[in-house]
# Entry
Amino acid sequence: MTKQAALASSGTARKVSSKQLREIIDAYSMLLPTILGVLIFFAIPLAISLYLSFTNARISTPVSAATFVGLTNYGNVFKDSNFYLALRNTLIFSAATLVLSILPAVVLAVLLNEKIRGQAFFRALFFIPVVASVVAISLLWRYLLNLDFGFVNYAMSLVGLPRIPWLTSPDWALLSVILVFSWKTVGYNMVIFLAGLQGISRQLYEAASIDGATRWQQFTRITMPMLSPTTFFILITTLINCLQIFDVPYALGYGRSTTIGPADSMLTVVPLLYREGFISDHMGYASSLAWVLFIMIMGITFLQFRISNRWVNYE
Amino acid sequence: MQFKRMLSLFGVVMAAALVLAACGVSTQQQSGGTTTNPTAAPAANSGGTSGGSTITIRWRTRPSDAAEQAVYQALNDAANQQLASKNIKAVYDPGVNQDYEPKLKAELSAGTAPDIAWIPGASTADYVAAGQLLDIKPYLDKDTSLKIADFYPQPVAELTHDGKVYGLPRDISTMVTYFNADLFKAAGIPNPKELSDQGKWNWETLLDSAKKLTDASKQQYGLGFGDWWGPAWGYFTNAAGGGMFNKERTACNLNSAESVAGAKYVQDLYTQKLVPAGDADGEALFNAGKVGMYFNGRWFTPGVRTNAKFNWDVAEMPEGKVKSTWLFWGPYVINAKTANPDAAWEVLKAITAADAMGKVAAMGTNIPSRKDQTAVDAFLKSNPPTNNQAFLKGTDYAVAEQALYTGNWGDFSGKVQPLWDQMIAGKITPEDFGKQACEQTTGAFTK
# Structure
């Protein structure tokens, strides 16, 4: 290469690199709001909460006043009877909600995937609770489930059934939370299942029909296996939502006292950490509860992924 | 290319806005105007200002509705007329009703709290322990325009700790028995006021009346009270001769024989279905004419006035082993970090003056915390109920809402309430309630 050619070549390189630099700057300046948003509102608070979980921080005093207490908060989590109560309630709630929000959603989706009259109307009808504000529907259900003047008990009394203390008895309160949350979630799951159903090739059903398969056989041998990736997605997202449940038990069970439902019967892990952090003023302890819950969710989700290759069929 | 540049610029501007939004501090800082040294000795009667600039003092209450908020706003406007000559401007900053305290605590921690705030009496000690309240004793000592003796002594005693005074009581409210006079008339039995006048208003006649008024077929209950410490485990253990704490408030007393007897009395009320379950529902049922008697404070009055379509009145609380009621109270406290303590003191005086309290009392929500005749007269004229005297008579023997300087009230009540719920649901015995409550709350008595 001559000296002239070398100079020309290096000039071109400089030119290209400055263009690339401009593009990088452009790209990052466009990404900046998102990056900063994630950093300021997610990553930094996450790091602070991790730090707080090792301190005796209180909400009523500045973070700088908190002192390091090592693993004391984490030790206290596993000594706290309220944590075990909240954990038990959370697990019962999650298990029941998974069943009550997924099975009806599959049935509804299959039915509304057929060409029936008013298909669009019914799809919209079942989706309405998803769009409604959680607090608004919880307050509405507070009235509907009222022991003395609620519509549910009134309707039950018309057919001779006894009145049920849905929200005022420790035996029934958690079931009320399960029913209200499932009612709200079923519409969302139905829509996701509908999308999954529409991705299944009609040819599979036609071939099965020619081979003499009944509708039930088509459902169990084609629909369900083909829906398994959708079911897996719904299982994971619904379970995470269940483990993090806060709004429904809080709105249904909050009264003048600080218990969540009678005798804390609606207390799940997130309302417990809210109460510890913001009402009882134990922010350090609440942060450790949050991290225990985070690890728990991570563990369960990891387990789900590990088990998934046994039953999820990807085409 | 031009479009891309614009997008980049937009991105940078958005990012800058994000950073500013996240890191910015509320424009409503501790207080506006000039700054004086909070630790400086108070300038008695001086008005707390120097120079010509106006000092802004922000103060907060927890109004339960728009009507109450309007009264405090009017109070603020009236205070400003008095304070104008002192170059002080009071700004009323109504707080949220739900989660009022968590928000206030977070603001105190962040340095954005108002200069003056109302807080619940029982929580006072927790704020004192966190060093968040200004000691107003030096002002009380030097400022002759305000006499602490004009206030009811119980809340003042609760606000006094280690020779310091941490605020002025805004209001008080004894707990009384609201009753539906029409239901009593229909049942042909004397109402609590009549029984009280005859000296026969006690737990026996309460139980008897509750049984006669209860009619399951009409979903009608004889008695109701909220499921929280005040009317529930607080009153019943006190009136049974026991109580929540020992005398020194250094330990739980819910396992004493007297407290357990009080709990047993309540469990029987629930077992016999003489009271509706739940908390707020009881209030709604009383207003709907479905509950004969309801224990509550003065704050219940405006709601009954608006909703009740029957004749009603109030009587003192029934006598158990001893005569007892609560004296609920809440103080106005000055933020320890206020930049203008002298001016905050002036505003505090203005909003706790007798005429100011009279205005709030006239609304019916609470009883003035001052014994001055002006304030008392305004309260007595606030009818219905006819028998407003029942609220005042209770002040003679009421137990003041207790500030737990020897522990953490939130921890204590948070542990006791779920056990109480289990007890009234019949899941545990009253004895177990007392035993477990005292076992589980030992940690609440260490700061």
